[in-house]
């Protein structure tokens, strides 16, 4: 678990480097294809938020590890026929990009559970093959989520196209950060800017990310 400890230390180091308050960046462990035992070990080091892409795999882990009171984030593409299970099993959905899906998640969440935390996924690359709304359509979807009683608007999420140049990484993240700050003035529940993964999280923290999603850095490369 040295990888996890070093990643946590690195986040704190970057918070200080870029003038961010300590613990202002939340670590989401991307645990797809990882065993329940690996998740338990990570939780013992203080990680409580875990991100999953594959529904059935995730539900098995959620049920098995329920006593740990972890927070589970769905970060994969949300298919219409999976909205019931997602809405009833997860604490967060970070990949909302369609009005239809928002309405279905709200319907299936029900009143017996806390509101489902929602991040709207933004497509920063402009590629049609990528998930997410365009940055210009973001507010329209945020407005709908805000009006739905069983959903709670928490922020924005993005997965930029891979880019090795640090300054170019920052430029893309800065675009989303500006939109995030603009939305916060109208939507007081917004507090999460989910951007930055294992290959670009320093640039994301430099530009104001409040949540980074790390998998490879925490658990090692996938086999």
CATH superfamily, please? Alanine racemase
CATH topology: TIM Barrel
**CA-based shape:** globular
Give the number of helices.
9
CATH architect. name: Alpha-Beta Barrel
* Uncertain spans: none
CATH class: Alpha Beta
The ordered string of helix (H) and strand (E) elements is HEHEHEHEHEHEHEHEH
Mean pLDDT: 96
Please explain how this structure is put together:
The two termini are 17 Å apart. This protein has a single domain, classed as Alpha-Beta Barrel (TIM Barrel). The longest helix has 19 residues, at 166-184. 41% of the residues lie in helices and 18% in strands. The chain has an eight-stranded parallel beta sheet. It has helices at 2-17, 36-44, 55-64, 83-89, 99-109, 138-147, 166-184, 201-206, 216-219, and strands at residues 26-30, 49-52, 71-74, 92-96, 116-122, 151-158, 192-194, 211-214. Helix 5 (99-109) links the parallel strand 4 and strand 5. The protein has nine helices and eight strands. The radius of gyration is 17 Å and the shape is globular. The chain has 223 residues and is an alpha/beta fold.
């Amino acid at each position: 678990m040295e990888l996890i400890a070093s990643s946590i230390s690195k986040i704190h180091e970057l918070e200080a480097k870029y003038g961010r308050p300590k613990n202002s960046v939340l670590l989401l462990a991307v645990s797809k294809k990882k065993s329940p035992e690996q998740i338990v070990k990570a939780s013992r080091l203080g990680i409580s938020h875990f991100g999953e892409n594959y529904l059935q795999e995730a539900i098995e882990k959620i049920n098995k590890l329920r006593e740990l009171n972890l927070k589970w984030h769905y970060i994969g593409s949300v298919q219409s026929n999976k909205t019931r299970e997602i809405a009833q099993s997860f604490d967060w959905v970070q990949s909302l990009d369609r009005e239809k899906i928002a309405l279905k998640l709200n319907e299936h969440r029900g009143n017996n559970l806390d509101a489902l935390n929602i991040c709207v996924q933004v497509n920063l690359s402009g590629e049609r093959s990528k998930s997410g709304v365009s940055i210009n359509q973001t507010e329209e979807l945020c407005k709908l989520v805000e009006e739905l009683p069983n959903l709670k608007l928490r922020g924005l999420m993005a997965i930029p196209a891979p880019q090795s140049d640090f300054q170019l990484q920052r430029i893309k993240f800065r675009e989303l950060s500006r939109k995030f700050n603009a939305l916060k003035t109208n939507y007081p529940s917004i507090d999460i800017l989910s951007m930055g993964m294992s290959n670009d999280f320093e640039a994301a923290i430099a530009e104001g990310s409040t949540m980074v999603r790390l998998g490879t850095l925490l658990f090692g490369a996938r086999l």
